[in-house]
Design brief:
This protein is mainly α. It has one domain (about 1-185). The chain is about 70% helix and about 0% strand.
Length: about 200
């Protein structure tokens, strides 16, 4: 019963549509109708400006961290439940009930959720994200590389424990949610960082 409650609470925390709400507060009526259509910090940045993008990023990271931390308090000593909560928060961000299950891609929320659970792997994921994004000027490719690094580093350092398995599952979800971006990259139509709107 506790596991079901943890999943439900973490999902609802993850599904809080901060990027949507921040964009609206900064004058973008529906961030799903502009730019890439993604409910995430990058699209908020491009459509509503740097301050809005930074605020959306902080809030999306924060809700992932809150879901994992709250589970740790509700079920101290339960190693698996915070990992389950981390995945549930990411799923909530990707498929939020408040936005008819059309959400973001889970990168920032996943980082926030795993930062307290696997700090070394999370830091490694950030480094890989930055290097890949700067080298290719594709935020989406950096996100995919960072997500994959999170799972790989967690598995390498921890072995097949609940946190590492959850990190691998989250990485797979992040890659899946970027499938359209990857198609555009291969097709030469994905927008690069700094590239003006057409």
């Amino acid at each position: 019963m506790l596991t079901v409650q943890v999943i439900a609470v973490a999902y609802l925390i993850g599904s809080l549509p901060f990027s949507f709400l921040v964009a609206r507060a900064f004058g973008v009526r529906d961030v799903r109708q502009v730019g890439s259509g993604n409910v995430g910090a990058t699209n908020v940045l491009r459509s509503a400006g740097k301050v809005a993008g930074a605020l959306a990023l902080v809030l999306d990271v924060g809700k992932g961290a809150a879901a994992a931390a709250l589970t740790g308090r509700l079920a101290p000593g339960e190693a698996a439940l915070p990992a389950v909560a981390a995945v549930a928060a990411v799923v909530g961000h990707m498929f939020p009930v408040w936005l008819r299950f059309r959400g973001g891609k889970g990168v920032a929320t996943g980082l926030g959720a795993f930062a307290p659970l696997a700090p070394v792997a999370s830091l490694g994921a950030v480094v890989v994200f930055v290097l890949a994004a700067l080298a290719t000027r594709f935020v989406s490719l950096g996100s995919v590389a960072g997500g994959a690094a999170l799972g790989a580093i967690a598995l390498a350092l921890r072995g097949p424990d609940p946190v590492a398995i959850a990190a691998v599952l989250t990485a797979a979800l992040v890659v899946f949610r970027h499938h359209a971006n990857l198609r555009r990259i291969f097709g030469g139509t994905e927008r690069r960082m700094g590239q003006p709107k057409e």
